[in-house]
Amino acid sequence: MKKQSKGKKRIVLSGVAVLTTLALLAGGTMAWFTASARTSKQASWTSR
Questions:
Q1: Hey, is 7 helix, strand or coil?
Q2: pLDDT value at position 48?
Q3: How far is 25 from 42, CA to CA, in rounded Å?
Q4: Rounded-to-integer distance, Cα 26 and Cα 18, Å
Q5: Cα 37 vs. chain centroid, distance in angstroms?
Q6: What pLDDT score does 14 carry?
Q7: Helix (H) or strand (E) holding 46
Q8: pLDDT in the model for residue 42
Q9: CA-CA distance, 18 to 8, in Å (whole number)?
Q10: Kind and range of the H or E element at 13?
Q11: pLDDT of the residue at 25
Q12: pLDDT at res. 19
């Protein structure tokens, strides 16, 4: 009975680790694509 409990615990912990990783990946992707860069109108690049 100990082996079943230990194996079940490992599966649950693996599932939690996978879900945490996916949540962080999704959050990072959302932050990347929703970020906006703000520049002033005075900032301009000219080549000479």
A1: helix
A2: 63
A3: 36
A4: 12
A5: 20
A6: 97
A7: none
A8: 64
A9: 15
A10: helix 2-34
A11: 97
A12: 98
Round to whole Å and give the CA distance between 16 and 36: 32
DSSP annotation of 40: -
- Tens of pLDDT, residue by residue over 1-48, are 556 689 999 999 999 999 999 999 999 999 989 987 765 566 566 666
**Residues with Cβ within 8 Å of residue 8, at least 6 apart in sequence:** none
At 42, phi and psi to the nearest 5? -80, -20
Enter the tokens of residue 13.
Answer: 């912990």
- Rounded to whole angstroms, the Cα distance separating 9 from 38 reads 48
pTM (two decimals):
0.61
